[in-house]
Here is the input.
Amino acid sequence: MPWLVLFFLGTGFSARAASAGSRPNVVLIYADDIGYGDLGCYGAHRVSTPNVDGLAREGLRFLDAHSPAATCTPSRYALLTGEYAWRRKGTGVLPGDAALVMDPARLTLPALLRRAGYRTAMVGKWHLGMGPGPGRTDWNGEIRPGPMEVGFDESFVIPATGDRVPCVYVEGHRVLKLDPADALRVSFAAPLDDSPTGRSHPELLTMRPSHGHDMSIIAGISRIGYMTGGKTARWSDADMSDVLVERARQFLKRSRSGPFFLSFNTHDVHVPRVPHARFAGRSGMGPRGDCLVQFDDAVGALLAELDASGVRSNTLVILSSDNGPVVDDGYRDDAVEKLGDHRPAGPWRGGKYSNFEGGTRVPFIVSWPGRVTPGESSALLSQVDLLASMASLTGQALVGEEGPDSQNVLPALLGESRTGRESLVEQAGVLSLRRGPWKYIEPGQGAKYNLPTRTELGNDPEGQLYRLDTDPGETRNLRTEEPERFRDLAAELARIRTAGRSRP
Here is the structure.
């Protein structure tokens, strides 16, 4: 069909990727709180990550790829919708009883792939809200809307994070293994009864909080928020990785005839860090390092399943993280004391929560055996681009208001172009604009440091300008030396903010 050939050429989709039978399975491995320098293939030497490193050797390792934000929920929202989260109210880091933050009527990444014939599944950390919201979500009945209302055919998730209640798995629309006689109740507003908390009874804890995280005690760990009941449904922190891996493997086994899309969202490195006994002590860096080893093992298990199912050669695997790293994020777990010379953010300044580059510059690896030539790429790209790029991969096009900030960077993802985006917006306490080697950080009135996490936030009331190719540590503010460039980038960011979209 001549029109089909013209369509693929017009969208930048290479002839070899568009050939008959090349529609690949897609596996997204989305890590939590893993920084640019946390993996061996990105320079880590104190922790061993052989499975991720092997994926990088056989694939393409990106050096200038970004999560859309320096925190979790907004990055996940932007990845799935193709819209910067700062455009929408209510997309900050959510409590565990928040309502779904996405409109089920809008196009999402799983919905896009499902309309192309893919079987879609979500396994792991969700943290985008479930149900109608605080005081209205019935955790003992059907919980909707959620992942299955935004494009996933199957869903097995932890609703928010390990340090937030409810500490249960939700399969489809229901809490797994819930006893109807032991009603599950959740609140982030006030205690539900007189049960001991981490604040009132620290002697009951097996892991002490360093700041906050002192409400309901679940399995010896005090969390954020209050939860009663649901005792048979509560997860084991140490077993969480194995449970999620097994669910993902089951989906891969059932879906081997393809095509399928699996979003495998790990939790390992996020607090509370409770590695399984077979990983405890493996890294010599405390639970955070041990959980990096555990994450690597999970990656290896999924890749082995793809091999065993005979689909690895026709599977596009993408591995990345939702934001930069954080060391002390609420619990006394020896992460700071045993860090040594390990640099979780690599050469970049800051980390999770920060306006500096370490907040959003994250690992990003793409592998598709026989299609993606191994190597590394300096192309500038963002996870917000996955929607438009997967549309191109599957012969579709975004129309109207679909994915307003998502750009088609498929040629860069496949290693067929060294060019990605011309510019991108990074979200932390304020917004930043990247264009080439230049980074503009808009004026910010907040604190210089997030004291609990010891993270530099990168706020400056007059704004900042850095040239990253000569100053990767963002140590020399060129605002006064390059006033015209400073003004131009500030004006460009203002245009993007007010336009409501940045996709051409």
